[in-house]
Design brief:
Layout (H helix, E strand, L loop, with lengths): L2 H11 L12 E4 L8 E5 L4 H9 L4 E4 L16 H11 L3 E4 L2 H5 L4 H8 L3 E5 L4 E2 L6 E2 L3 E9 L1 H12 L5 E3 L7 E10 L4 H6 L4 E5 L3 H9 L3 E4 L8 H16 L4 E4 L15
Parallel strand pairs: 2-3, 2-13, 3-4, 10-11, 11-12
Antiparallel strand pairs: 1-4, 5-8, 6-7, 8-10, 9-12
């Protein structure tokens, strides 16, 4: 199987046309006509992930976050990012990034996150449009109902458990209430908190909330849980399962691996008192 075969099948699932404008999705590096024997799914393409791919004889890295958010201005290999590109080229590894098209796709990233919270009756948080492949409405984020009501503290602990994080940030207004209806948007979704309020969410789960936006969330009476950007790593096993299924359906002779590395740049330091 060549890399383009998997790309074509994936783009039937998550069309490039439903990506956000200007998002640098798609083929990032390498020859799409290269023969592929092993694919590795990952959240991020970092030097340690590339080393993992080389060690496991991977031909194709399929990532959620694009490897090239910013264009290279030179090929100075003393720069770690450029050195990573050179290593990928030396080892003939194809790299593809599926970012906001996967975020927007039905049964994609935000459905996977909503499933982790066990939300029911989910609908898109944001209005995206009509998917040209399926004719169905799409949109980023999800809003749905918890199986049972929770206090803010209970919900924060629940999020730690389901997302397997050691800690998270909680934004809580003075007047708290039980949480039943929840909005979630993977990645950096702080700017969309007012839509969560308009959709009747008691709590909003998203990453990378900034200081001043946090104040605005409190003013709107919205409880917000920020478990970080890395919860999107659920994509590794979800994409792996999807590709294994497609391989069986299409008789592709490929091995599909999920990266075993944690690429979260943040850790928590806990003081003694």
């Amino acid at each position: 199987m060549i890399a383009q075969t998997l790309i074509d099948r994936f783009e039937q699932f998550a069309s490039p046309q439903i990506a956000e404008p200007g998002d640098p999705i798609g083929l990032q590096l390498g020859d799409p006509n290269r023969e592929v024997k092993a694919v590795m799914t990952t959240l991020d393409v970092r030097p340690e992930v590339v080393e993992e791919a080389i060690e496991k004889r991977v031909n194709f890295i399929f990532a959620h976050h694009p490897m090239m958010f910013h264009a290279a201005h030179n090929l100075n290999l003393s720069d770690p990012q450029n050195a990573m590109y050179a290593k990928l080229l030396r080892h003939n590894i194809v790299v593809y990034g599926a970012h906001t098209n996967l975020d927007n796709a039905n049964n994609g990233m935000n459905d996977w996150l909503a499933e982790q919270l066990n939300l029911s009756d989910t609908t898109p948080l944001l209005n995206g449009g009509i998917d040209p492949n399926t004719g169905r409405h799409y949109g980023m984020g999800r809003v749905g109902e918890l199986a049972h009501d929770m206090t803010t503290d209970q919900f924060a602990k629940y999020c730690c458990d389901v997302f397997n994080v050691r800690g998270l940030r909680v934004i809580s207004p003075k007047e708290t209430h039980l949480i039943h209806r929840v909005a979630i948007l993977g990645g950096s979704g702080g700017q969309f908190y007012q839509t969560a309020v308009q959709q009747g969410a008691d709590a909003y789960v998203t990453g990378d909330v900034s200081y001043h936006v946090g104040h605005d969330m409190i003013a709107h009476g919205l409880t917000v849980i920020d478990p970080g950007h890395h919860i999107e790593s659920v994509c590794k096993v979800k994409l792996q399962s999807m590709f294994i299924k497609w391989a069986a359906e299409n008789s592709w002779s490929i091995n599909v691996l999920a990266s075993q590395l944690n690429t979260d740049p943040f850790s928590f330091f806990m003081r003694d008192n």
